[in-house]
């Protein structure tokens, strides 16, 4: 590799450039306090073989910017892996594709949850939780998570790994053997990530409840059954909330057995329709009456209180990794549809309110399906048509925003964050306190350029320029007539300044090439060595 073509290095001045030292990342509790409310990019990256097969385009920066703009401070990226393997390992092509989406999310300033999602891949993991460990499954967990963790080992605390999605078996009663098997696989996940080192040594990790079901988890998976971690306070727990099922997801009436009455769909939530009691949320087909708890905020409050008592209060922050409700169209129309939509707005507000009340992070499920002719209709932000990122369910989003005192949604633009790989804890706005109203349509500042060279080539440069002891600032080479120096925590230059980590990733970039005076602030960077470039002049910057 001829590095003189990249940096304009024409002299033999050398310097020591070791690896960026790993940081001790914040605890799970500290991370969760900044996560606010979240959004799922559903039916995309978890689709087997090709993320566009279920009707959604490949995620874009515009989409992730719009998620941030809507007031979300967290994004969950459900992801397939098993269908993207060759010779038992995830292909580099797929790892790069996932990295593209993760970078979009991180650049938008979002806390980013990356998981292993299994439904579309034959349930290779979650449908095979038996009473004993399957070595094939265990080896896959170790191999995949080792690869994933290595790919992202230097990302900061805003990237979080989740071991699974909705682990089975889908039975009413979990035995202690089933629980032990699941926890063994989680132990494999945790050990694999920690073994990769770097920031992964203290990264926040998430394990899932039994079927991500609240009651099953509380009954059969107390914290005493949890896997062990080498570091303290870096685990979170995940459940999902789609209650009542007849209201949120069920697309046709169901016959659940000869001895049980037909289960009707629920159309109306907090706004009930007296003339159709069987279609009001909480209707009990067995008792022939409506359970008011299921149709109000009382039920999520009761359920989430269990999460606080059994997990949060015992040191494990909890995320509600999925929640949401279909729009009952085309089943309903006219005034009935309007009544349904009013109750649905209240349902979302109730779930988010209860989550915030008990210290949980609620993460909205979005499947991208915008069609009113579909019975699976749960799209809150536009993906399948233009303009991408348009908020489709303004009333729902505003109801959720109100819980965090964000006010009604306004598109005010987004400021990109570029130091998510080796940067420190950014002082990002969070939906838990400060309004965030940003959109991809008005980007205030962004820079996405990265060095095309591989990290191994970058390391070759670092090794070839070894000069022994390193000071706070060490100039490497420079172009004549270019002013470039450091004073304290500021770099000063006479053109565009770019700062790279030791893996060749762009950390920060300010100014224009023709600028006569440019300043780059160095606050918030992690300790370690960096390379700065301005108009062909290159220097080493060490942050202590």
Short overview:
This protein is of the alpha/beta class. 26% of the residues lie in helices and 17% in strands.
List the defining traits of the structure above:
single chain, 544 residues, Immunoglobulin-like, TIM Barrel, 2 domains, eight-stranded parallel beta barrel, 12 helices, disordered N terminus
What does this structure look like?
- It is a single chain.
- This protein has helices at 4-7, 28-32, 61-69, 92-107, 135-151, 176-195, 214-220, 245-248, 298-310, 334-357, 394-403, 455-464; strands spanning 38-40, 74-77, 85-86, 89-90, 111-115, 159-162, 205-208, 235-241, 283-284, 289-290, 318-323, 361-364, 414-415, 443-445, 473-477, 484-487, 490-493, 497-500, 506-510, 518-521, 528-534, 537-543.
- β16 and β17 (490-493) form a beta hairpin.
- An 8-stranded parallel beta barrel has the order 1-2-5-6-7-8-11-12, surrounded by 4 helices. A 5-stranded antiparallel beta sheet has the order 15-22-21-18-19, with no helix packed on it. The protein has a 3-stranded antiparallel beta sheet with strand order 16-17-20, with no helix packed on it.
- α10 packs parallel to α11 (394-403).
- It has 2 domains: 4-17 and 465-543, Sandwich (Immunoglobulin-like); 28-245 and 298-445, TIM Barrel.
- The protein is 26% helix and 17% strand.
- The radius of gyration is 25 Å and the shape is globular.
- It has 544 residues and is α/β, with parallel strands linked by helices.
